[in-house]
Amino acid sequence: MKVYSADGELISQFGEKRRIPLSHDEIPQALIDALLATEDSRFYYHYGVDPIGVVRAAFDSIVLRKRARGASTITMQFARNAFLTLDRTLIRKVKEIYIALHIEQLLTKDEILTLYFNKTFFGNRAYGVGAAAQVYYGKDLNDLTLAQIATIAGLPKAPSNYNPLRYPEKSKQRRNTVLSRMLIVGAIDQETYDDAIAQPVTAKQHGAKITSYAPYVAEDVRKKMVEKYGIERAYTEGFNVYTTIDSKAQNAAQKAVKDNIHNYDERHGYRGPVSYLWRESEIVYQAPTNEEASVTETAAIEDSIGEAADSLFSENDFTAFDDAGDYKPSEDLSWSFEQINDHLNTLRDYDDLVPAIVTNLTDKTAYVQLRSGIIEVLDWDNLKWARPYISDNLQGPAPKIVAEIIQSGALIWLRKNQDDSYRLSQIPDVSGAFIAIDPTNGDIKASVGGYYFGNNQFDRINQAKRQIGSNIKPFVYSAALANGYTLASLVNDAPINKWDNKLGTAWRPKNSPPTYGGPTRVRRGLAQSKNVMSVRLMRSVGVSKTINHMAKFGFNKSDLPRNESLSLGSAALTPISVVTAMSVFANGGYLVGNQVIDRVEDSNGNVLFKNSKVVAGYVAPEPKEPTYLTDSVETTTEEEANYIMPAPRVISAANSFLIADAMNDTIWGGGSWKNGTGWNGTAWKAQSLRRRDLSGKTGTTNDAIDTWFTGFNSQITATSWLGFDAPGRPLGSVQYNSNLSDKQTYGGESGAKSALPTWMAFMKEILPSIPVSYREIPEGIISVRIDADTGLLSRKTDYTSQWEYFIKGTEPTKYADSNSSMRLDQNKNQIKEDDELF
């Protein structure tokens, strides 16, 4: 079974058997000659059975009491391989003869040969000569030399014993036997024979060439195929599964996730080498354990480290090259060049990380040895980030010289930069995930379930339920708009202190950061992710009503806590459910679901299965009964069916438009910076993408245990998550690193700092191919000028007013009084605070 992207790139291959079916015309004559000369030189002259061979086999079995052997024609071998066991008994031989005679009556000789070449086992999971050519030589059959063809032709007799990968000498002997038989029967001349037997064994292990890396997608597809067809059919029938994945988007997502994970990991500090294979000298450094260490203490530690390094090392100690410019190991190096190389050859790469051993140092460079004796130089720019990791909330002082980071003998991990230089790295502790879908039909365009599938197959996209924090707020605000609120309604942005009679304590949700602006418009509350405003909106609408509204987006009600903490994102949800739900705002109010498999074809290209899709805004040519999102249909090659179904509308077009427009301010903010009233949304950094058609929402849970960002336009919706797999471990905070530029990320981790960068890096790669598409204003939406402070109508046209969208009939009817301040009870949508303590 092969898994492909939508644009035909190979994602993965599964199954015990590898098959590449060929027609008779695609099989080289030299291979036919080699097989006939070796296995059945009278193939075209008998009727499936060689009488002389059969008599000899019967005599051996009955008279001499030996196992029946030999006499198997190509037709008989095919009969045995296709229909019988491999038991060497007389009864099996009789069955073999009977089936062979029947096959000869049904098929031509060329058809029998073609089946034999396609069905016979050639070792290393290769069934058929096409697969064998790829497995052993990585070539198409027609590109093989005569020596390589003879090697393959000799395999059916004993695929394991003559395997050129395991037993090259035995394989060579068998190959020469085949060539000798070809010479005897006249298939080749003496010169050709001499040239072929002089060739060395060139077989090497070759697998399917993966051209689009998406291991978590491949595993998801594998599970779905096994569930649908059973493990035997899924693994052995040569299915070609075409997914909805876009290879360019997938590659961009993969890189964005890994880069962001490494960026987080680096800013939290270096945890040190994997081990030391030897030590030439040692600096004793006791890291501070008090997280409240003062700046003065940190500076003192930094100075002491520098002094210690200066006293232990001099420039001459780190000489890596002689006067002629040739590399030479340090004189007191404990391991030789060969020992280092031998040790490195025992180590595997960790995804993109490669092992290396430090051999020499200077103040600002490190010389390292990689596999095959390659010597690389790590310059200071690729080392200076590595201040000591102390805890998730505390890092040690910035290093001044390389010796404060690593020393000779250190076994370290390296990561390759875009310019092919190397950077000091380490295996990350943190995890991340990313998914992007087409909001119009739910096609998954990219999906990354973690950092490295080879180490951890847990798919965080489909399997990890994590609290989503403020990513829940668009759904809370959508419920509010569906229950009488507008984007201009004022909600009190002030602390909440609610007594809980059951717990006997007060619930005090706070904004993050804990700043409050008093009466604030709903639009700004969503864009700036005001926690207390979200709580007040849910309280006004009601918990049950809010949950019922959220269920329209595809969320399972059982995943939504029935209390006000839901308004702050206490629900634990999977990234795939979040991105699917958020797509409702991107596509105008429709629930489209999601799918990763587009169609399944057999090995001949016949479509066996095609996924039906529900499409936002699609109008079916004929009325149809409502369909479930998981409906699919079996097809045959003769059928031409329409697999497009209309998606169900779950919220109004107006509601979807208003929330998406407010989420645009999460990126672009509002007000007038020129006149001192400007404000940023929580994802203002995404302005660097220079796309006004983007909307989004950050998400950060308590103590930054989980961080999220979901953003979209009408053509792509994507969700990013970053956090630790270990439950309850906060992402922590970072102190300023004096070795890095002012553009570095520091302070407490959050959705904007930890998850947003992945989304931005992905969008930077794919947006150039996606035209700008502004939201269409739905019917029933009007725009009026309002006062920026009160949300009431305004006659002014300066910075104190702005245009706002309303569902017709919900717009304000009163004008703001410029001579008096707004009172809370003047706005019809202001929440009462009777049950709160201030």
Automatic annotation (TrEMBL):
Domain Glycosyl transferase family, by residue range, is 8-182
Q: Which UniProt keywords apply?
A: Antibiotic resistance, Carboxypeptidase, Cell inner membrane, Cell membrane, Cell shape, Cell wall biogenesis/degradation, Glycosyltransferase, Hydrolase, Membrane, Multifunctional enzyme, Peptidoglycan synthesis, Protease, Signal-anchor, Transferase, Transmembrane, Transmembrane helix
Bilayer disposition of the protein: Single-pass type II membrane protein
Question: Where is this protein chiefly located?
Answer: membrane
Query: What is one Gene Ontology biological process annotated in the Swiss-Prot or TrEMBL record?
Result: proteolysis
Region Disordered: start-end pairs: 814-838
Q: Which GO terms describe its cellular component?
A: outer membrane-bounded periplasmic space; plasma membrane
Q: Which residues form the Penicillin-binding protein OB-like domain?
A: 328-430
Localization: Cell inner membrane
**Pathway named in the protein's UniProt entry:** Cell wall biogenesis; peptidoglycan biosynthesis; Glycan biosynthesis
Question: Which residues lie in Polar residues bias regions?
Answer: 816-829
Q: EC number(s)?
A: 2.4.99.28, 3.4.16.4
Question: Residue ranges of the Penicillin-binding protein transpeptidase domain?
Answer: 432-715
Described by its record, this protein's role is as follows: Cell wall formation. Synthesis of cross-linked peptidoglycan from the lipid intermediates. The enzyme has a penicillin-insensitive transglycosylase N-terminal domain (formation of linear glycan strands) and a penicillin-sensitive transpeptidase C-terminal domain (cross-linking of the peptide subunits).
What family does the database annotate?
A: In the C-terminal section; belongs to the transpeptidase family. In the N-terminal section; belongs to the glycosyltransferase 51 family.
Recorded protein name is: Penicillin-binding protein 1A
Query: Which organism is this protein's natural source?
Result: Psychrosphaera saromensis
